[in-house]
Amino acid sequence: MKRILIAGVGNVLLGDDGVGPYVACLLASRYDFAEGVRVEDLGTPGLDLVVHLSDADTILIIDCVSDDKPAGTITTYQRADIVKHGASIRIDGHSPALTESLMIAEFTSETPKQIALIGISGKPADGVELTPPVRSALDPAIEAVLQQLDLWDIAYSNKKVSSPLEVWWEPVMALL
Amino acid sequence: MSKRITIDPISRIEGHLRIDVEVDNGAVSNAWASCTMWRGIENILLGRDPREAWLFTQRFCGVCTTVHAMASVRSVEDALKMEIPLNAQYIRNLILIAHGLHDHIVHFYHLSALDFVDVMQIPKADPRKTAALAEKLSPWTRNSANEFKAAQQKVNAVAASGQLGIFANGYWGHPAMKLPPEVNLLAFSHYVQALEYQRKANQIVGMLGSKTPHVQTLQVGGVSNAINLDNQATLNMDKLAAIKLLFDEVIPFVQQVYLTDACAVAALYNDWFKIGRGVTNYLAVPDLPLDTKGTQYDLPGGYIMDGNVSGVHAFKTAADQDFRSGVAEDVAHAYYKGGTLHPWKGETVPDFTDFHPEGKYTWVKAPRFQGRPMQVGPLAQVLVGYAQGHALTRKWTDYALDQISAVAGKKITVNDLHSTMGRYAARAIRTAMLGELAQKHWQLLVENIGKGDVTTFNPPSFTSGTVTGVGTHEAPRGTLSHWVVVDNGKIANYQAVVPTTWNASPRDAAGTPGPYEASLLHTPIADPEKPLEVLRTVHSYDPCMACACHTFDPSGNNIAKVKVL
């Protein structure tokens, strides 16, 4: 059985950086996936990511991207874009993130990984809320995820009844 | 003439750690440690329910998430003066131990070993000679010539491809790299094996915490792991046995491989016992509680001033009165408004000015204990324990010092540990101790469940009025404390004084530098363009700027830059 990981990464305390976990929660609440698919909010892993990457043959990462495009722009990156810059000089334990974790996972495993990254342009900032343009990009980001799954021939279906959305870090609207 | 070197992941918008050093006549003459990112977590917590604070605090960081969850629940429990069920103490202890084992393995092999191990020398090594050397050093069963040959072939393949991948940007061939090819191969082969064992340790965190990173099973008042030996969905004998099997694999790795390699590297680079002394005030809190009230601990705490190890002061509890009253944070050189405040009165009001070495230059506050900068981390843990005659600390420290002395061909003593290499050695010693304590706490948990006790949670109750609490944890990087003020059941103030804040502390109002800054002084620099020696000392603290942000930067601009002016 193919092991497929769909992971939202990012810091939910830093504004738009929390978009990856947010999209992962939305996917888990709205869709059923084929056997072997895991949907995870992986938060802010450093080298912890290696374990998750090693355990999967196919990996789809959803993350905030810092670039010059307007906030909310969605870009799908393929493997070559992710590994093209190699490892950096490590100053602290946070430095080895996605690129380096992927290289380590592949260095020790027999088979290369199939990987793509759905990037949502945004700006990390204080606080637990997404900025309006990134919030508007949530549904398009889910579309981009599903399109990538279609390309990989990975099945999913709409849930008849959505399960609760576990975006626990957002202020509870009902109380406002 | 003096040169200024800046090492900074400058283009990464969230930034992390920046180090500036001045070099005069081939050695560091002045140093500044700076965190380039604002951390506003404290403000996010204001007004929230204290029972959920731990879910937020463990998202501070991408490396040590578990520790912030633990310190947070302990701070609220301290404020409410709660007792914690024995099972919950043991389960938490096992999570902390497993996390510590994982974290230290990763630090040594994957974050810092390549400062000492020259991967590009490995093709020259003879795998059979490497196996013969390994057999002399350790009984580890995976030290065969075939194992070393396989590791060598992986490196050969990477070198031949011209795409260095994970080994891009190493300082290969640097004049400060000194290991013989066989030792480089030995250590590198264990780097590969370490990937398996750090993962097994992390699996234990996942099994008891239900998720890693970011455990889910802590609660203010205990843990949410249900115990029922007859139920497949709870913590039962099968799961406990699976946890034991994982520990049984990880413990020999840390005691026979990690500790042995750390001792060999320390012996062959023993000049680094004379470099990086820095601040010799040490602080550690007791941890791994053995009873519900937190009066007995398996790991001792206390403090040492001015390197006077025999004058150690012990802490009786994890929130000792001396500790509670002794901590304050100074913001004279940090980008905050306000003066020197105790954490319960602490403020987080930004006042950014850019990098001014004589003025404000970092987002890290300067924590002080009894007005002094303190070094925290494994070296503080080992020295504080050793000075108090703590048997387990003495056993593994003496063992390590004997191993280092034997390989170095000269006597290395506890007095040599006040150094960059002392911090690497102490971390390996602490890891070996944690391995032994893993077995003990697993046994304690199983025996306690065997007595029929399945309680894991005491519900908290909040009263009206204001209460204050401090939760501590002696984390892999050192003393961590969360300070909470609860007002009518809501958070009125929250401050985290984290290990890297102690170690990466800037100068205080009196101009006294923090541990990173002080320990970089006099470090010899062979090549200012490749400041490997600076990285060795900075890495000896295992820096973890508590400000993780994992925005993917497709331009590759997150590569750290070295600027020489």
Describe what you observe in this structure.
The complex is a heterodimer of chains A (176) and B (565). Chain A is an alpha/beta fold and 176 residues long. Chain A has 6 helices and 7 strands, in the order E-H-E-E-H-E-E-H-H-E-H-H-E. In chain A, the strands form 2 sheets. Chain A has a 5-stranded mixed beta sheet with strand order 3-1-4-6-5. In chain A, strands 2-7 form a two-stranded antiparallel sheet. In chain A, helix 1 packs across helix 6. Chain B has 15 helices and 16 strands. In chain B, a hairpin with a 2-residue loop joins strand 13 and strand 14. In chain B, the strands form 6 sheets. A 4-stranded antiparallel beta sheet of chain B has the order 3-2-1-16. In chain B, helix 4 runs antiparallel to helix 12 and helix 6 packs across helix 7. Helices cover 40% and strands 15% of the residues of chain B. The radius of gyration of chain B is 23 Å and the shape is globular. At the A-B interface, strand 3, helix 2, strand 4, helix 3 and helix 4 of A face helix 1, helix 4, helix 7 and helix 15 of B.
